[in-house]
Amino acid sequence: MKNYYYYDEKECQFIPVNYGPVERVVYTLGLWVLVGTVITTLSLSLLSFSVGSPSEIALKAENRALYEQLQQTRSSIEHLDEQISMIANMDNEMYRTILGIDPLSDDERQAGIGGADIYARFDAYSDPSSDLLRWTASNLESIERRINIQKLSFKEIKAHYNQNKELMSNIPAIRPVSGIILSGFGMRRHPVLGYNRMHEGVDFRARVGTPVYATGDGVVKSARRWRTYGLLLVIDHGHGYETRYAHLSRLADGIRPGVTVERGQIVAQSGNSGVTSGPHLHYEVVKNGRPVDPLNYMFADLTPDEYIEYRRIADSNPMSMD
Fold first, then answer.
1. Model confidence pLDDT, tens digit, residues 101-138
2. Which CATH code, of 2.70.70.10, 1.10.1040.10, 3.40.50.720, 1.10.10.60, is assigned to 181-316?
């Protein structure tokens, strides 16, 4: 320890200050405590400035959690948007087209809004959060509008159905068998003949003897063996519609030309007659003399999810069963 002095006015000189052992220890400890306190205070101040106070740290963690939750919500909104789009496509391609109602355009379904920026309140947040909040709010409102429009569309379809019940009972609208689809409508490679040709129906998995149902009310037009179709049943539903059931093993009792049948009635049993690669049911829908995709005529007993799965299978298989 350095020597300290005080000035003695009587002696007119500086007198050295003498500390005892205890005083020296107390002085040294006091000095270190003072220095430590200053350093600690400065360190805490710097840490608080760079990292934040405990409450600020907790708030930042909460904000991160909320941002991550918003990201997950965005994924859910995107999935919901895809589902609504699929329902809208079914609405246009199946229900409205079959009933003869004009399909709704994309602009009508979106029902966009204009005017002032209604999401300006989010600009107060940081860029990533502001953009995500804007996107979430905008898409949720868009989904809400599209759902309301879809509700109105279904009401219109229901009203049209009530006015055309006879037509709806005749239109083929169910699956002819309960099996899964194996191949769809369009150009397909024939498994026996070995070349691509137009596949004018859909193939259902069905063991020999599986019940086959009439898909709409109608009159049996023909029931006979016909070329590569094997045993073929044709039902005339009126209003320009016919259905064809091919590769049958037998007809149900009483099924012959001129007989009236109802939707859901067993009219035959599936089989393996004609030129095929195995037992199944080939099913066609003909409208005004031209084959159309039967998948669009199963709206009475296919849910949207089932339709999506059937469409995926039908479109992905490049080969038919016949």
1. 777 777 777 765 555 565 666 665 666 777 777 778 77
2. 2.70.70.10
